[in-house]
From TrEMBL:
It comes from Streptomyces stephensoniae. One of its GO terms (molecular function) is oxidoreductase activity. The lineage of its organism: Bacteria, Bacillati, Actinomycetota, Actinomycetes, Kitasatosporales. This is NAD(P)H-dependent oxidoreductase. Keywords: Oxidoreductase. Residues 3-150 form the NADPH-dependent FMN reductase-like domain. Pfam families: FMN_red.
Length: 208
């Protein structure tokens, strides 16, 4: 079984990310390759403060329970799909903060990106690709870019209301893009399993 986490990258109260992540989960479960298990990992459920660990994440020594809980959640997966908005031309703070809490837990796994925003979240995704490279995450080429104008329905919505996120109504073509993304993430996650196993053996041998 290949386990993929759908990581919801926004924690804002009135966010579009929850609806997008739910769509990735339900649509993805129909389209994912055989033997793939998808699970939501919502940053809002972890309530991570601004990075407060005394030691660098690369040391793998965690002083706080919230970090250990986050570490256990992320380490359990073979690959990831980040669902990210674009804030001010870049990665949202909560997602970058959550990524920086960990290090080895990300290594030798695959990641794909579903972005959303007025430009489809593409600039946030480009930044995430640079971050992924440093964390030894294999990022796949296919990405899903959702537009907050055309992929959300605002019929009857009071746009003066700060909670007016609209109803998520993605174009049909995005389902095909998501299927391709999940196929690529699965292929790379499975290919990298041998690298993860070898790394684990080397660490065990060093420790003994």
């Amino acid at each position: 079984m290949t386990r993929l986490a759908i990581v919801t990258g926004s924690t804002r109260t009135h966010r579009r990310g929850a609806a997008v992540a739910d769509w990735v989960l339900t649509t993805g479960r129909k389209a994912a390759p055989e033997g793939v298990e998808l699970e939501l990992v919502d940053l809002a459920d972890f309530a991570l403060p601004v990075l407060d660990e005394p030691a660098p994440a690369a040391w793998g020594i965690y002083a706080h329970e919230h970090t250990r809980r986050w570490s256990e959640a992320i380490a359990a997966f073979d690959g990831y799909v980040f669902v990210t908005p674009e804030y001010n031309h870049g990665v949202p703070g909560p997602l970058k903060n959550a990524i920086d809490y960990l290090y080895a837990e990300w290594h030798h796994k695959a990641v794909g990106f579903v972005g959303y925003g007025v430009e489809g979240g593409v600039r946030a995704v480009e930044q995430l690709r640079q971050i992924a490279a440093e964390l030894k995450l294999a990022d796949v080429g296919t990405q899903v870019a959702l537009n907050t104008y055309t992929d959300f329905d605002y019929t009857g919505v009071d746009l003066g209301d700060p909670a007016a996120t609209g109803v998520f109504a993605p174009a049909e073509r995005h389902a095909d893009g998501l299927a391709t993304l999940l196929e690529e993430v699965t292929v790379w996650s499975r290919a990298l399993a041998t690298v993860r196993a070898r790394t684990d053996r080397e660490l065990t041998a060093t420790a003994s």
